[in-house]
Design a protein that fits this description.
The protein is α/β, with parallel strands linked by helices and 574 residues long. It is built from 16 helices and 19 strands. Helices cover 30% and strands 13% of the residues. The strands form 5 sheets. The protein has an 8-stranded mixed β-sheet with strand order 6-5-4-7-16-9-17-15, with helices on both faces.
Length: 574
C-alpha cells in the first residue's frame, strides 16, 4: 500500500495490514509504576552481551552468522555466544558440519579433513592423538573460540524442536548483562551491540524486550517513500483451530519513521534483546516440544504477565539471511517448506499443545482421558487448574492478569463450548497502552504461588554458569529501583524517575532500630555462642575431644541436598 493513504505522523506511522495509523506522542515522563532502567557496574558503554544461537544441521549458515556477529559489533570483545548444536555426529564434517568448527574454518583454522581422520584412525591410536592435538591447536588459534563461545551439542535424533533447543540456554548463560536470541541464519547492522543497548535504554523500562520479525537481508536498505526507516511489525493475532492464539510467520505490518521503540503485542524468537533476567525469570520451556507457532503467544503471555514489555525498535538491528538452505534441508521433510526438521513425535507434540492450552486456561479440546493425566482436582476444570499451578515458572506470572492480557491484545479466548473467540485483525497495533503493575511483586512470582493447588510442581531450571542473584530468584525488591545488587549504577534515565529517597525510607526512627538490633545481637550471643562454649567444656570433661565435637557441629550445619530440577532430570542424558 502506498504512503499516500496515510498521514505523515511526526512520531512515526504503523501499517497494520490494512491501513496506516499515526503513532501518538510518547508521554513526557514514564509511568510512575514503570521500573526505570538500571545499568551495569561499568555503565551501558561497557555492557556485555550474551547471544544464544540454536542450529539444527545448519552449521554453514550458522558459521557465517558467527563471523558477521563479531565483525559487525562495535565491541566484539564484550560479546559472548551460546551455541546449541544439533547435528548428525555420525556424518562427515562436509555433510553435517558443526557451527563452531565451520566458523574456525572461515577464520583460517580448518580442522583435519574427515578422510584424513578416517585413515589415521585405521593406522594407529597414536594418529588419533595427533588428530586431537591438531584440533586443540586449531581451536586455540581460532579467534574467540575458547574464551567467548560456549556450546552444547547433541545428536539431531534427540532434537525436539526450537523451543526445546533454546531451553539449553540455561547451561550456557554466564554473568553477562544483556541477552540476545537470534536464528542461525542472521545478519547484523553495523554496530548492532551499541544500537541494541541504546534502543533498550530509550524505552525507560528495566523490563523492556526489543523484539520483532527481522527484515530480509535483501531489503536491508528499504525505506518508506518519505525516506524514513521501515521496521517489520506483527499486528494480527488470530485464534487457531484448537483455540490457541497464533501470530503469522512473517510480519504482517510495519512501522515507519519511529522516533523511539514502540510498545508491541507480539514477540519473535528470531530476534529478542533484553537484560539477562529475561532468560532467568522467563526461561524457555523444555517441555514445549515439537512446537513452532503454537508456543509463540503463550511465551508472550508469560513475559507480559511477569511484567515484561515488548517493543519494536525504531531501527533494524538484525536481518534475516535468505541464502540457499544447506543441502540437508532441501530433502523432503515435515517443515512448512518441506525442509528436513527434527524427528517428529505426535504424542510429544500433542502433550505440549495441551500444555499451552492449560497455560492459557483453554478447556476446549481436552478430553476427560487427557485431563486425568494432568493432575488432581474435580472434573476437567479442577484438573486443569491443578495443572496450571504445576507449571510453576513455566506458567503465568502475578504482575498482570490473563484478562488484562486479552484486553491489551484485543482478543478473546474460546469458552468451554468453543464459542466467543476472536482475533484482533491487527487493530490497536499503532498505539498500545502500557498496563501498570505492582513492581513490588517479583517477576518470578507464579500465578498460583501460595494457593496449595500444585501437586507436582515443575521446578525452576538451573543456570550453573551464572552467579548473579537473578539466577536463583534473589532479586528486585521493588519499588526500590536499584533492586538487584549486581547492578550498582543507574542510568540518567533511571535517576530522573526517582522523585525522592522517601520511597525507600522507613517510618521507624533509627534509634529504635539500633536498640532492637543491639538486643537481638545480645540474645543471639547468649543463646548460641555461650551455649556452644558450655557444651564444648562439658564434652571435654566427659572425655569427648574438641575435634569430635567440632566435626559434629559441622555435620549438623550441613545443608540438605537440593533436589535436581525436573527439567534437569528429564534432560540429564542430553
Amino acid at each position: 500500500m502506498s504512503a499516500s493513504v496515510s498521514v505523515n505522523g511526526k512520531f512515526g506511522r504503523v501499517f497494520d495490514g490494512r491501513s496506516f495509523q499515526d503513532v501518538s506522542p510518547p508521554p513526557r515522563t514514564p509511568p510512575k509504576e514503570q521500573v526505570p532502567p538500571t545499568a551495569t557496574a561499568g555503565g551501558a558503554s561497557k555492557s556485555t552481551v550474551f547471544v544464544s544461537i540454536p542450529q539444527f544441521r545448519d552449521g554453514r549458515r550458522c558459521a557465517q552468522t558467527l563471523q558477521r556477529l563479531f565483525e559487525s559489533a562495535s565491541h566484539p570483545d564484550r560479546v559472548y555466544v551460546g551455541l546449541i548444536e544439533q547435528t548428525d555426529t555420525g556424518r562427515s564434517k562436509e555433510e553435517d558440519p558443526t557451527c563452531l568448527e565451520e566458523y574456525c574454518a572461515l577464520m583460517g583454522y580448518k580442522m583435519m579433513e574427515e578422510e584424513e581422520q578416517s585413515q589415521a584412525a585405521d593406522r594407529s591410536i597414536a594418529q588419533m592423538g595427533a588428530i586431537q592435538a591438531d584440533r586443540n591447536k586449531k581451536m586455540a588459534g581460532c579467534p574467540r573460540a575458547l574464551d567467548q563461545i560456549r556450546s552444547v551439542r547433541f545428536h539431531h535424533l534427540a532434537a525436539k524442536g526450537p523451543v526445546y533447543a533454546r531451553s539449553f540456554t540455561r547451561k550456557l548463560l554466564g554473568n553477562e548483562d544483556f541477552c540476545m536470541q537470534i536464528d542461525a541464519s542472521t545478519d547484523f547492522a553495523k554496530g548492532w551491540d551499541n544500537l541494541a543497548v541504546n534502543q533498550w535504554l530509550k524505552t525507560g523500562n528495566e523490563y523492556a524486550v526489543l523484539s520483532n520479525v527481522p527484515l530480509s537481508e535483501k531489503e536491508r536498505d528499504k525505506m518508506g517513500s518519505d525516506g524514513n526507516v521501515e521496521v517489520p511489525r506483527q499486528c494480527a493475532i488470530k485464534i487457531g483451530s484448537e483455540g490457541v492464539p497464533l501470530y503469522e510467520n512473517i510480519a504482517d505490518g510495519k512501522a515507519i519513521g519511529l522516533m523511539q521503540p514502540l510498545l508491541s503485542t507480539a514477540h519473535s524468537s528470531s530476534f529478542a534483546f533484553a537484560k539477562c533476567h529475561y532468560e532467568t525469570n522467563v526461561p524457555h520451556d523444555p517441555f514445549a516440544t515439537q512446537l513452532l507457532n503454537t508456543e509463540k503467544f503463550p511465551r508472550f503471555a508469560r513475559l507480559w504477565t511477569r511484567g515484561y514489555d515488548v517493543y519494536v525498535p525504531s531501527v533494524n538491528i538484525v536481518y534475516r539471511d535468505n541464502v540457499v538452505l544447506h543441502p540437508l534441508h532441501q530433502t523432503a521433510g515435515h517443515g512448512e517448506k518441506r525442509e528436513k526438521l527434527w524427528p517428529k513425535n505426535d504424542n510429544e507434540r500433542k502433550a505440549a499443545h495441551i500444555r499451552m492450552k492449560v497455560l492459557l486456561d483453554i478447556h476446549h479440546g481436552i478430553t476427560s482421558a487427557e485431563a486425568s493425566s494432568l493432575g488432581g482436582g474435580n472434573g476437567i476444570g479442577g484438573k486443569i487448574s491443578t495443572a496450571r499451578a504445576n507449571l510453576g515458572i513455566y506458567g503465568l506470572g502475578k504482575r498482570r492478569t490473563l484478562d488484562q492480557l486479552l484486553e491489551f491484545t484485543g482478543i478473546a479466548l474460546p469458552g468451554t463450548d468453543f464459542t466467543g473467540q476472536r482475533g484482533n485483525d491487527g487493530k490497536g497495533c499503532s498505539n498500545p497502552i502500557w498496563v501498570p503493575y505492582d513492581a513490588s511483586i517479583s517477576p518470578r512470582a507464579n500465578l498460583f504461588d501460595g494457593t496449595g493447588k500444585a501437586n507436582d510442581l515443575d521446578l525452576d531450571p538451573e543456570f550453573p554458569l551464572r552467579t548473579l542473584p537473578d539466577a536463583t530468584g534473589g532479586q528486585y525488591d521493588h519499588p526500590f529501583p536499584m533492586g538487584n545488587a549486581a547492578w550498582d549504577e543507574m542510568t540518567d534515565a533511571g535517576k530522573a524517575n526517582i522523585d525522592s529517597p522517601s520511597e525507600a525510607s522507613s517510618d521507624v526512627p533509627y534509634s529504635i532500630v539500633f536498640f532492637l538490633w543491639a538486643v537481638g545481637l545480645y540474645v543471639w550471643y547468649s543463646t548460641f555462642v555461650s551455649s556452644t562454649d558450655i557444651g564444648h567444656n562439658r564434652k571435654a570433661r566427659n572425655g569427648v575431644s574438641n575435634k569430635q565435637s567440632t566435626q559434629a557441629l559441622r555435620n549438623s550445619a550441613r545443608k540438605p541436598r537440593r533436589k535436581v530440577p525436573l527439567a534437569e532430570r528429564s534432560l540429564k542424558n542430553v
